[in-house]
Amino acid sequence: MKYSYYPGCTLRNKAKALDDYARASAAVLGFELEEIEEWQCCGGVYPLGTDEIATKLSSVRALNAAKEKGQELVTVCSACHHVIKRVNDDMKHVEDIRTRANNYMQLDTPYAGETNVLHYLEVLRDRVGFDKLKEKVVNPLKGKKIGAYYGCLLLRPGKILAFDDPENPVIMEDFIRALGAEPVVYPYRNECCGGYISLKEKELSENLCEKIVDSAAGFGADMLITACPLCMYNLNKKTDGTIPVYYFTELLAEALGVKEEVDDR
Amino acid sequence: MGDFTVDIRKKARSVDMDKCTGCGLCQEKCPSKKAPSEFNRGLNTRSAIYTPFAQAIPNVPVIDRENCIKFKTGRCGLCSKICQAGAIDYEQQDEIVTEKYGAIVVATGFDTIKLDRYDEYAYSQSKDVITSLELERIMNAAGPTQGHLERLSDGKPPKEMVFIQCVGSRCADDRGKSYCSKICCMYTAKHAMLIRDKYPDVNVTVFYIDVRTPGKNFDEFYRRAVEQYGVNYIKGQVGKVIPQPDGRLLVQGVDLLDNKQIKKEADMVVLATAIEPNPDVRKIATMLTASIDTNNFLTEAHAKLRPVESPTAGIFLSGVCQGPKDIPETVAQAGAAAVKAIGLLAKDKLLTNPCTAQSDELLCNGCSACANVCPYGAITYEEKEVNDHGIREVRRIAVVNSALCQGCGACTVACPSGAMDLQGFSNRQIIAEVDAICR
């Protein structure tokens, strides 16, 4: 199975690990991630201004590139996924945005939200299947107690992202189980880490992260996993290494036995 | 009108009603005691042979065949051995009883909504988050904790209780119900007072959107909860209930009057869940050709003047199947429905609106279009000999039951051959009126 792949800028530098492990694991699991040519930054934040169109165009370009190849578009970074999925929903349902974006883009055939956007975890759940994933695990992460940290971008707004139940998600817990580890359910797993507010009001973000980490530790988690480089950044500042935070793809690569291969590159 | 033939399935009880003395020995000795008790909301278990609740009438137990060892494996049969009256009958079969009735009162009641779309209240994550109905059973002397207020997780008595109102009621999005469930404000005030009365050292906080107390002595009741019993009412909704590692619950909400976010530690949280009609009521409505709304409430014939009757003649409504209501209102409506039914059955002749539909047997082609649109089930077909300008033949033609017809006119529009007319408002009469006006 071939998918169009949108890595995103952070995965080119700070979050390179998230990308490398994702690609290596995909190869083991038997699906191909075909990087979109000349993709541009998604902007990192979904633009809420209804009259603003320019900031949505990079997403539309990526979506249209996948459409032209007749492929589904896979993302792995929570922020990119959030932005692209929401822009796709706009293109599908908001006539004004669709018309203006298409007028600007001058495509041969206008784009109207035809591409299906999948997060890497959704590919694992809906295309590969967690049962199949479990079969491919060569190095089960036995005895590890892992807390899934969803953050907000993957889950909300629930109807548009349609990723999982925003109040009681299970996809990452199922993923952890498939890797042979034990998921730790804690109530702050779907709370916000503060996102970009950490640049302006450090303390606010630190308070939020403290609650998340304390709650996870209180319920017995040895480590946290996330799909978001920004969550990783904020959480890491707070944990001081007491509870390590990993990208979910790193543990995936480890369980599939390709982590060292990636690390040695 | 009326004239219902009803097939009633009388389920096999596996106990002979005439022989059983209701001594209860079989329930005591039954070795299969793992089935969740429906009456106690699954908070404890019951035996496979059981009476639904202590005051059930008739006081004759029933065998739940899915949980009975005798029915599952063929062994056991203990209840049959110990029953001194010899009332146990494993061979009993379901029976279909056919009866004729002149009127039907629908009283299918309600259920509380499932909380799977309200996970922010942590109902599925913590045993100490319960519904009001579960609290009702916990506070009951015959309930799962013998009436002691205790946390279901560790059996400890709570010190801080938080009630959350309007869970799923008055909900703007499609997760819940748009309507007010009407009974929650009063039972929450009752629960709060009960707890403060029995356990004065327990603090009780209630989060509410509005306190709605329209009813005789209702507002006084609520004021008593606040002023006399010291129940802490906070106007505002709860965003999240957060289970803490130490087992307590952190309730995160807002105080709208103070315009402040609040966080409150609690030992137990009680949710006033919205009520909804039993989902199976849709099947009954179809069976009775009774009209039903998008919330699955059966519709009354007129919101103000005919509130206990369905638009379909001979069908009467009582209780929450028609809309949320409390006990006194339900009793009043049930009484009214019974009287209406008696009024119908006591008459030799019925008075109806004369503007009913009538089909012209020479024009009708028996296509069934009218019967398909009739909301009252008033149209049937019969094979009838007609004399069409000297041609005598048997045709299938529509016949309107003028007692059932309400004169809505749907059939007159649906009829492709123009055979259906409302008496007094026939197509020709209306055209003549229009001509007269336009002259």
What features would you describe in this structure?
Chain A is of the alpha/beta class and 265 residues long. Chain A is built from 13 helices and 8 strands. In chain A, strand 1, helix 1 (16-29) and strand 2 form a beta-alpha-beta unit. Chain B is globular, with a radius of gyration of 29 Å. Chain B has a 5-stranded parallel sheet. In chain B, strands 13-14-15 form a 3-stranded antiparallel sheet, with no helix packed on it. Chain B has a two-stranded antiparallel sheet with strand order 1-6. Helices cover 22% and strands 24% of the residues of chain B. The A-B interface holds A 165, 167-168, 185, 187-188, 215, 218-219 and B 117-120, 122, 124-125, 240, 242-246.
Q: Return Rg of chain A in Å.
A: 18 Å
Globular, elongated, flat, extended or rod-shaped: what is the shape of chain B?
globular
Mean pLDDT of chain A: 94
Describe the largest sheet of chain A.
Answer: 4 strands, parallel
Structural class of chain B: alpha/beta
Largest sheet of chain B: 5 strands, parallel
Could you give the topology of this structure?
The complex is a heterodimer of chains A (265) and B (439).
Chain A: E1 2-6, H1 16-29, E2 32-35, H2 57-69, E3 73-75, H3 78-93, H4 95-105, E4 117-119, H5 120-128, H6 130-136, E5 145-148, H7 158-161, H8 171-178, E6 182-184, H9 197-200, H10 202-218, E7 223-226, H11 229-239, E8 245-247, H12 248-256, H13 259-263
Parallel strand pairs in A: 1-2, 1-3, 3-4, 5-6, 5-7, 7-8
Helix pairs in contact in A: 1-12, 2-3, 3-4, 5-6, 6-8, 10-11
Chain B: E1 4-10, H1 25-29, E2 35-36, E3 45-46, E4 49-50, E5 62-63, H2 69-73, H3 78-82, E6 95-101, E7 104-106, E8 110-112, E9 129-131, H4 132-139, E10 160-167, H5 184-198, E11 203-208, H6 218-227, E12 232-235, E13 238-243, E14 249-255, E15 260-266, E16 268-273, E17 275-277, H7 281-288, E18 315-317, H8 327-346, E19 357-359, H9 369-373, E20 379-388, E21 391-400, H10 410-414, E22 420-422, H11 427-438
Parallel strand pairs in B: 7-18, 9-16, 10-11, 10-16, 11-12
Antiparallel strand pairs in B: 1-6, 2-3, 4-5, 8-17, 13-14, 14-15, 19-22, 20-21
Helix pairs in contact in B: 5-6
